[in-house]
Amino acid sequence: MTGGRRDPKLAASQAEVTDIIPAVGDDEPPVTEEEPEDAAPDPDASDADDAGGADPSDAPAGPSRWARVGGWLSPRWPRMLAAVAAGALLSASFAPLSWWWAAILGFVVLGVVLTRPATGIGGGFGYGYLAGLAFYLPLLPWISGLVGAVPWLALAAVCAVFPAVFGLLAVVVRNLPGWPVWFALVWALVEWLKASFPFGGFPWGIIAFGQTNGPLLPLAQLGGAPLVSAAVVLLGFGFAALGLGFADWWQRRDTRDLVPPAVVLPGVCVAVVLLVTAVVSPGVRQSGAGAGDDPGVTVAAVQGNVPRLGLEFNAQRRAVLDNHVKETLRLAEDVRAGRAAAPHFVIWPENSSDIDPLANADAREQIAAAADAIGVPILVGAVVSHPEWTRDNPAASNTVIVWDPEDGPGQRHDKRIVQPFGEYLPWRGFFRLLSPYADRAGYFVPGSGTAVVEAAGVPVGVATCWEVIFDHAVRESVRNGAQMLAVPTNNATFDVTMSEQQLAFARLRAVEHDRYTVVAGTTGISAVIAPDGRERARTGFFEPAYLDSQVRLKTTRTPASTWGPAIQFVLAGLGAAAVLAAGFLAIRQNGGLTCPTRRRRKRHKTEGSAGRTAAETTSEEPHDQ
């Protein structure tokens, strides 16, 4: 709480329970009178033993193990259930439900749990981990369809560590004035860590990507995904502080207090988020409506489909290539018949040719035939052998090649961010011992370049599948001159929920950089996305189709395109500074980050040995239970 009138007795009681850093454990029992360590043995007790006194086995038995477990759970289970509910609400903001508002409500619940006086540092970690499990387990089940349940559960368990770290750090900073602000900044710090470590990070589950159907999406144009996430978190914790502040004021209201002072700061935070969103939204909507004199081009995205879902699609590489050639020929026929507009270029998905067309003459002929039929360049997603290829190390590049109908293969984008445990396996020798699925991981090598290719004179920024999740990948292509974005992707090994979640990444990138974005998938979902995040056209999942739509080319840069890294650095840096400041204050005032309850016990024992009474040494009250 940030301020307000409080009952002096209540304040004094709370001051005894929590110092600047709360207790490490939850719900510690009250401190009782302790005997000095140097107390002499009781001679009467010794004599009684010598004389064959009462058998110690006749003493009353202590509580059973289950009774102790029940006693431990009793004060904690409401907060444990609340933490699980908070995580489930965060997950509900993503597809398939896509309830954007659920994330805000989830942070309201989590804020109440983490600001309870009885929630110590250890409790913050534990409740955060429960929330993380409830968040990631229902978010990532599509992974089990590829490699089984164990990797899915393991990945969810690892991802849950980051909300746990947030819970721990939130308890550290919660006594700083204006805790909703510091909570939001600490969350920004933890999201940056999750998007960076380990193995390059796993940004899946960044809160901003669950907001592509919500009113806060326009904020992406100012600060990208980090700013959207911070705004959602600030709203949630701000509403939590408002509720707690009003509840506290209502219980201790004074007729002279018309407004509880403790709600002023969180109220200002909520108002600022809503006001900034209202200011930015009209410009984003105007851009999405096509206002202005930006030149337009017609772009086609081909979704050829695969014979069947699952890893087995790799065994039918020629069938996948044939499907995309066939669908392109159908597009060419519709153009000649006047049923479709003639495109300036065509985008094929990732892995549309898993046969290396630069080395295989048959694949080369098929792609050339498709390009000749449509008469414009095709951006072909292909797997190309890497110069380091050997039989023991079949290294390859995941490549997008601009295939011109006259000149053949030209410029290319080699995927720069390859997916760990999918496209390549870190520590292959080690993980091969843990899972039989290890050998299914690819041997792809990350490429380099500007992430921009030119097709029919149009600079196209390419973010191949996994790359679109990372802020810097798309930002660099825009900075290098991309006037529109292409996201070729392959979801043949996953399901429609995963495809919807990935499509949300592209929608946020379109708003973030004010660029039309075309998503081309082997099985779907392919889409044409306007700069306001709206889908102007989309295909179904697991069906052959093509999209033929006009997009506008843009050259201006948004604040997120220009200042995105600096904004993320400021958000994460302030979160880290808050943690350091809270730790410094704790060390300065209390001598360290030790448990206040145990520290007071030691102080009481020392004072008792100097002559303090038992009543003076048992003033500690239990934590809120």
How would you sum up this structure in a few lines?
The chain is of the alpha/beta class and 625 residues long. Helices cover 46% and strands 11% of the residues. The chain is built from 19 helices and 12 strands.
Residue fraction in strands: 5-15%
Molecular shape: globular
Percent of residues in helical segments? 40-55%
- What's the CATH superfamily of the largest domain, by name? Carbon-nitrogen hydrolase
SS-derived structural category: alpha/beta
Describe the strand arrangement of the main beta sheet, using strand numbers. Answer: 5-4-3-2-1-12
Per DSSP E runs of 2 or more residues, the count of β-strands stands at 12
Total of domains: 2
Mind summarizing the main beta sheet?
6 strands, mixed
Count of alpha and pi helical runs:
19
Q: Averaged pLDDT, please?
A: 85
Q: Terminal Cα separation, in Å?
A: 20 Å
Radius of gyration: 30 Å
Can you tell me the CATH topology of the largest domain?
Nitrilase/N-carbamoyl-D-aminoacid amidohydrolase
- The level 1 CATH classification of the largest domain is Alpha Beta
